């Protein structure tokens, strides 16, 4: 396929340098560069690891008090015009 492409000066210089160094045509060098750039496989994402810890309620802590507090806060929000 024939097409017209406008290259930045630095890219044209890199392609020309490679063309002379590898003794290939400009078309070959350009096609190889495009092919290499367009066929790069995406990197595999790193596996996310999360360390878990044992949790629990400390001795003497009343979990029901926390539930009562949450209920009270929800009631206050409802009476203040918010949504629950």
From TrEMBL:
This is Ribbon-helix-helix CopG family protein. It comes from Knoellia remsis.
């Amino acid at each position: 396929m024939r097409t017209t492409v406008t290259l930045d000066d630095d890219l044209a210089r890199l392609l020309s340098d490679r063309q002379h160094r590898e003794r290939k045509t400009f078309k070959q060098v350009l096609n190889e560069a495009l092919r290499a750039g367009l066929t790069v496989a995406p990197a595999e994402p790193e596996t996310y690891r999360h360390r878990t810890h044992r949790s629990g309620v400390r001795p003497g802590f009343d979990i029901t008090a926390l539930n009562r507090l949450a209920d009270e806060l929800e009631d206050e929000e409802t009476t203040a015009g918010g949504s629950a």
